[in-house]
């Protein structure tokens, strides 16, 4: 079974789309939705799922932030694998089945997919960001090609490396730690994930996102010089990927 972990904070406009896209996956699953003290109608909207035995609803006693909320979902997971899905993203049918088959075939511990951007404001709506067949620790240092909402990971590995440091890119830091030990993340180069590209979230500002990326390298244990080298690779990749004609390849 796959345990789908969906943290949500003030997601009244998108949470149903996210949950329904998980329930549409043709695999054995449970959907763990954790309301992180939303102040909008999220809690009321989620009541529609109380009769569905596949959905488990949790309420945080206080606002924990996305990293700790995901960790709470992982702790509650009953499946062999955990899949992460943010409340403003959604999946295409067939995603989890293909990833489950790939991990079973390869013996891998983590898998991600390509994603389709969804953001009318940026002009990047519908653009696809591809993933390689294998992502290694070394390649990940220069570019975070693993989208959190596309990940399926073995539950014991997710518990071994809980997410931390929400002030930076907590998911990127986690993938680096995992690949340093387990070597490879397998990629399915199909846009099974529809990724809501935010212009107002913590990654919305390019400068702020860049500072968080440098913070990831430091938290991952790289010294200052190594962090600068990796950051230079990250910056060059970003310039090439976002500003060349037909970018996001």
What does this 3D model show about the protein?
By secondary structure, the chain is an alpha/beta fold. It is 39% helix and 22% strand. Strands 1, 2, 3, 4, 5, 6, 7, 8, 9 and 10 form a ten-stranded mixed beta sheet that branches. The chain is globular and about 55 Å long. The two termini are 32 Å apart. The model has no long low-confidence stretch (mean pLDDT 89).
Write a brief structural summary.
The chain has 249 residues and is α/β, with parallel strands linked by helices. Helices cover 39% and strands 22% of the residues.
Share in β-strands? 15-25%
| 3D shape | globular
Count of β-strands: 10
Q: Mean pLDDT, as a whole number?
A: 89
Helix-strand category: alpha/beta
Rg, please?
Answer: 17 Å
Helix tally equals 9
Could you estimate the helical fraction of the residues in percent?
25-40%
What characteristics describe this protein?
alpha/beta; 9 helices; 249 residues
SSE layout and pairings?
Layout: E1 2-8, H1 15-23, E2 29-35, H2 42-46, E3 55-59, H3 66-76, E4 81-84, E5 90-91, H4 95-106, E6 110-118, E7 128-129, E8 134-136, H5 137-142, E9 152-154, H6 155-160, H7 170-182, E10 184-196, H8 206-219, H9 224-243
Parallel strand pairs: 1-2, 1-4, 2-3, 6-10
Antiparallel strand pairs: 4-9, 5-10, 6-7, 6-9, 8-10
Helix pairs in contact: 8-9
